[in-house]
Amino acid sequence: MLADLKIAFIVLLLVLGVTVVVGITAYMVDRSTARQERKE
Amino acid sequence: MDLAHLHLLLNHFPVIGTIIGGGLFVLSLVMKSDDLKRASLAVLLGISLLTIPTYISGNGAQDAIKALPGTSKTLIETHEGGAFVALGFMEFMGAFAWLGLWQFRRLGRVPNWNLGVILVLTVLSLGLMTRASNLGGDIRHAEIRTEPVTDTGEPGLARRVGSVMTDYQWMWATCETLHFIGLSLLLGVVFLVDLRVLGVVRGVSFTSLHRLLPWAALGFGVNVVTGMMFFVGIPTQYIHNASFYWKMAMVLLAGANALYFTLLDQPWGLGPKEDAPVTAKVAAASAMLLWVGVMYCGSMLPFLGNAF
Asked: At the N or C end, where does chain B have fewer CB atoms within 10 A?
């Protein structure tokens, strides 16, 4: 039971971590390109 | 024809294609030609996609020759490990080449920082892929080996990564969840663009939709990484699986379809209420069919094939 909970927690943490990294990357790409677009 | 034939057919493309794409890219920088730059980025992106079936078919070739007399397991796994690292760099190169094409449409140029990144990744990918090819040649060509073969019994890099996938329960579960998140990101954006091309949500301009494409590209990236982790974990459940072959064929066709939308100027110049040309509509409809096919074959891996 405890081992299952540990696995569930690790999976949740990793999935959230990767999702946040992907989200931040996409947001930064969009923002920085929009900034450059406005400059030009 | 089996995967061994396919590997022999494809295994020269990553090296030769990167030389051609990289050469054109350097030439475009020297000549300051935007058309040449876009063409070279498209070649590099196409080659990075083609490297995936090249790698996958390698495990089929391994299966076909592993029992032949004089075949060294150590040499096979050294080649597999070298190809795994080279594949990683090739996919990063393809990702930045795609970003360059996207930036070109949005800004009318590729920023200098990305040109530098693409150049470095192309050189590194070419070096690593050449090394992987040479290691592959060693397996069946004793005449080019520089050292005598000694089977150490040590697993290669790809096998060690594969063991992490199978030895730790949370790895497979994490990759599976991320694979679905990547799929949702990718198909969410792709279907939105395709539906707009087909005439739905006409009030939305193509320029607005174009801004969403990096989200789809990142979703695809997540799926390439997690998909390769599944494959490296248990290759045998995929290399004899017809459903997997169909899935990969449709992923590549959908990739070619994405190249059409990335390279051609239609329909991105159209504003709100404007109708997309017929060729774009055909491409959009076929893309939707292909992605539904990818999902279907992915879900059917255990039922039509031998996975899990």
From this structure: N
